[in-house]
Amino acid sequence: METLYLLGSADVRAGIRNWSSAARLGRFPVEIALCDVMEKIQIAQAMRDVTCVIHCATGSRQVIIQGTKNMLDVSRRLGVKRFVHLSTAEVYGNANGKIDEKFPYQYTGSAYGDSKIEAEKLCWEYYEKGFPITVIRPSIVYGPFSKDWTVRLAQSLQSGNWRIFKGIGEGVCNLIYISDLVSGILLATRHEDAVGESFNLAGPELISWNQYFQKFNAALGLPELRVINPGRARLKTSIMKPVRSSAKFVLAHFSDPLKKISQKYRFAREVMRSFEKTMRTSPRLDEFSLYSRNAVYLGTKARDILGFRPKFDVESGLKLSVRWLKHLGLIGI
Amino acid sequence: MMSNTLDSATKSVSSGKKQPKIAIIGCGAIAERYYLPALARHPAILKNLILVDRDKARIQKLATQFNVRNYVVDFGEVLEEIDGVIIALPIELHHPISMEFLSRGVHVLCEKPLAESADKAREMVEEAHQSRAILAVNYFQRLIPSFVKVKNLLAEKTLGEPLFLKYCVGEKFDWPTVTGFYFNSNISARGVLRDRGAHVIDHICWWLGGKPNLLSSQNDSFGGSDAVAHIQFMHNKCFGEVKLSWLSSFPCKYIAKCQGGIVEGDVYDYQSVVLTENSGRKRQVKLQSESKSDIGFRMVTNFINVIYKDGKPLVAGSDVLDSIQFIDECYKAATRFDMPWYEFLG
Partner of B264 for a Cys bridge, out of A247, B255, B282, B329, CB 3.0 to 4.6 A? Predict the structure, then answer.
């Protein structure tokens, strides 16, 4: 939305689930409409006179699958001319090797990846009915507003809890900087030959996860990362697993009393903050399988059909990311 | 257990006089979470309370939830009916609707910020003066013990002249606004500085005893509402800065360095401040415990007392004119941050 507005290339209407999530979009004088993807009537109101839809809504399994179906239903009924669906490279599961768009779906049991497969299948059903759909499969998106691979990682590196994971973090980190991803999406909305196709979008550089951690750490100006051996790393994260589950349970069931206690007692507030920070900035066990995955998501098709040329190597992408993190006070305030 | 302040507040409004008739105009999130729970602790007032909102389903929901019998959709119906009104509307409506009531001598408790601009706020104060109505405003943070402590320390020069003041509030915007008025740039392109800044800038003006001189003002607006704002200012010998964000969470803190020591605190720790002497000795000063709902009750109770002609408003409209004027100046002088991540798009 920001890019479309700044480029002035389209009249944009931004759909949001509720107003409490509108602060970022509100900075631009664009039309903002309530568009909960689980509410068909609301979708229809938000989509009046819309010719092209970029569907990026995400959430629970139900939101990803039923929400996509609702969006497809209403868009088709209203005669939308182009529908670009934001999927993920996670639809390829834990497969290794060079992966192009013909690679079969692989279910892994992950709620996100598996739901995205179901959502893509719905897209192809609608395409078969003649609805003009394009599917985008980005890999590891970093840059401004990337929660996992920029904000959380920067804070983890800063916390001192992060390490170079010897023997684990040697997998390929298929990074794409956010502006490159947006360029690819915009190309997909415009190119006639994009209809009925899916595209991997990847950045210009292939590095390992450990290299990414090191480069990010250096861009933040932090002391060199320490190395942890695989056995110790797995043991530490395994120990944390039940702690995480218990914390999740307590938060889900007792958030109000916890809030009251933290408001009342400074000590309790500090303990909770410190605990939450440790949880947030330590690696999770499921991340290790991603860090050791040796998959390269080929972007050849996007290059040949869409003319997609990513501009940002990791160094320039990280430089801008760090500027943005400082700007928002997410690091070094 | 109720605090002494609350005990005396309750006693004051239950002294056998005729109960005033109050209306709440605007039944959004603030009415539901703040005013109605406070009014529910005054059953006699609640009995005569009138809810007003254009959204009938919304008022019916709140009327059922809080056991309020009277509600209307048009505020015109209550203009001649009531003794006092609580204005809990989107900001751009504070001025026009308050003026309607003030001009009829109806006492007003207006949600913060008092008005969109200092000119409008001054008009409201003037109208209240002319018609002998009271204009109170819900800058409830002026009642929070930790902020009151800072005010007293600075006003009494306990720590000497203030030389440096920094105030940071970084919290993701998550207010469950029902109408989305915050983000309608056709109505107003003011964001975090007008919202979170209303309290922060008010504290600064209140603590320093007047409006500071603006040195610089930057925000991230592209024509819509600002979500990040940085301000720098001077007041006498005191240099100050403010950092506000709706987009990120960072420690919400204030610190005032004075000639004779430092006072600092966590914005959400209402019960203590930390004092550091020049010798380096640090100590936490514990203060009276009061929750936000107790403070809301105190604010509403005070308004009821004001209607009884029994006391002055805790925060009067005229008290906040400096901060509104300063916010105006910040918006007028604002330049956009250098944000290179937006330079390579497309």
Answer: B255
User: Which member of A7, A24, A266 has the closest CB to residue B227?
Assistant: A24
Residues 6+ away with beta carbon under 8 Å from B109: B84, B85, B86, B87, B136, B137, B138, B299, B300, B303, B313
Bridge partners of residue A31, in order along the sequence: A13
- Residue A232 resides in a domain: yes
Please compute the mean of the pLDDT values over residues A274-301 and round it to a whole number. Answer: 88
Predicted TM-score (pTM) of the model is 0.86
B163 vs B179: CA distance, rounded Å? 42
Query: Which two tokens mark A54?
Result: 């970029």
- How many domains is chain A partitioned into structurally? 1
Residue A3 in domain: no
Residue A304 CA to residue B14 CA, distance in Å, equals: 80
Cα distance from A230 to chain B (closest Cα, Å)? 33
CA–centroid distance for A232 within its chain: 29
CB of A333 less than 8 A from some CB of B:
yes
* pLDDT tens, residue by residue, B35-80: 999 999 999 999 999 999 999 999 999 999 999 999 999 999 999 8
| Identity of residue A110 | S
Any domain includes A107: no
Query: What value of ipTM does the predicted structure carry?
Result: 0.85
pLDDT band at B3 (very low <50, low <70, confident <90, very high): very low
Domain range B4-139+294-317, CATH class: alpha beta
Provide the number of CB pairs (under 8 Å) joining chain A to chain B. Answer: 124
Q: What is the pLDDT of residues A13-52, one digit of tens each?
A: 999 998 888 899 999 988 999 999 999 999 999 999 999 9
Instruction: Give a yes or no: residue A235 inside a domain.
Output: yes
Instruction: Determine the structural domain holding residue A236 and report its residue range.
Output: 140-176+205-294+313-333
**Domains of chain B, residue spans:** 4-139+294-317, 145-289
The topology (CATH level 3) of B145-289 is Dihydrodipicolinate Reductase; domain 2 (3.30.360)
- Asked if B288 reaches chain A (Cβ–Cβ under 8 Å), the answer is no
Q: What is the DSSP string of B93-157?
A: GHHHHHHHHHTTT-EEEEPSSS-SSHHHHHHHHHHHHHHT--EEE--GGGG-HHHHHHHHHHHTT
Q: What's the gap in Å between the CA of A292 and the closest CA on chain B?
A: 30
> How do residues B246-268 score in pLDDT, each as one tens digit?
999 898 999 999 999 999 999 98
